[in-house]
Amino acid sequence: MDNRQFGESYRPLSEKKPPSNPERREVLEAPRKWMHFFGETMQNYLVGKQPPDINDFMTKIGEYYDWSHTFLDSSMQTAQHIDDPLSESDIMNEFTFHQINGPVAYLWSSLLYSKHNIFPPDQIADMQAELAVSMAQPSRRLKILDQNRTITTNKEYSRLKGGASEVDGMIALMELMKKYPHVIVLPAPEIFEHNKRSSDRSADLLVIDTVDRQVIGAQIKTNTVDIFKKAVDPLDINAIPPKKEKPFDTNYVIVIDSAYELGNTVFSPRSREARESLPGQIAMGLLSTRPVNKPPVAVPRLHYLKSRQIAVELSRGRKSFLGQAVHHLEERIMPKLEKEGDADQQTA
After folding, report:
1. What is the number of other CB atoms lying within 10 angstroms of the CB of residue 237?
2. What local confidence, expressed as pLDDT, does residue 147 receive?
């Protein structure tokens, strides 16, 4: 879809009222400030407004990068331990964007000031690896919760699965950037994700063609079916009919099933004849195969080695579907980035 049409269809959100609780207000001030900054930046870009001065913008990105790498994790921990702690859903809504955006923050400069992604494949791989590192401890925790079947309905379990699904989707879609320099993938700011006025167009990620100025949103679902037959290939999404869920406007958003389309399934502990969804496998598979001596630039070596060891343990005996998933997503997404005239010519 054309950038302007896409951007204008999402109405700006009302400014959130600061929490009355001083501890909540303190812990949410920075993430909300930065969420507003990136939401405004993305909408201004999509509707064709002149970008800010590049030096001013890069200074801002540097400040954000430092904040996300220094204070984001501690802010999330603090939010869960104050006198009036945030709920699991609030934590996901307030912080997941920044968990994904922090490692890829400098991609925003490519979006605003270049018609092509200026980062070579090895630097994109570095960003992917940093995202994977951030998922090591959550994936380990997710496996522990998954094995304890009496508590898999708790809200922490749901939050971890949702966050891991989005990171896996981001890692997979970033592979397209290595092949198509004019394509940039970024997490969707709140205006595009949690906007009640356009809930049928809710997007977790945005895939943007910077040359033809086209965009499509991606909504990452942990799974669109409850349980999977053993014989079904995880990437055969047509094998089982999906659950009845609220429909999305496919002109704006494609729904990506983390279980089927990213291969995030494991055998059910209740039956060896069935599979269940368990996201995080894309991230852990990627991290487990990265060289020991190649930590991402922003990740301390010891933290990288510990995270990689977790990934190796979690990936043991599992097949990675990343290559197949990327090929499948490419076939779904790239046609959505074609101009209407180009698409008509191909079908003529």
Report:
1. 18
2. 78
- Relative to beta strand 183-187, strand 214-221 is unpaired
Identify whether 125 is part of a domain. yes
Helix segments in the chain, DSSP class H: 3-8, 22-46, 54-70, 72-81, 88-101, 107-113, 121-134, 136-147, 155-179, 190-193, 281-288, 301-315, 322-333, 340-347
DSSP state of 269: T
Buried b (16+ CB within 10 A) or exposed e, 105-130: bbbbbbbbeeeebebeeeebbbbbbb
- Beta bridge partners, 219, equal 255
Residues whose CB is less than 8 angstroms from the CB of residue 93 and which lie 6 or more positions away in sequence, other chains included: 190, 194
Q: What is the pLDDT of residues 209-263, one digit of tens each?
A: 999 999 999 999 987 765 455 444 556 545 555 555 668 899 999 999 998 889 8
Helices 281-288, 121-134: axis angle to 10 degrees equals 120
Domain that holds residue 206: 3-338
User: In angstroms, rounded to a whole number, what is the distance separating the alpha carbons of residues 307 and 309?
Assistant: 5
Which single residue is written with the structure tokens 């994790």? 73
Contacts of 288 (CB under 8 A, 6+ apart): 308, 311, 312, 314, 315
Strands 214-221 and 253-257: parallel
CA–CA gap between residue 337 and residue 64 (Å, rounded): 29
191 falls within a domain: yes
Number of domain units in the chain: 1
pLDDT at 348: 43
In a domain, 346, yes or no: no
Q: Is the dihedral of CA 157, 159, 161, 163 positive or negative?
A: negative
Q: Locate tokens 């922090």: which residue?
A: 102
- Report if residue 247 sits inside a domain: yes
Global pTM reads: 0.91
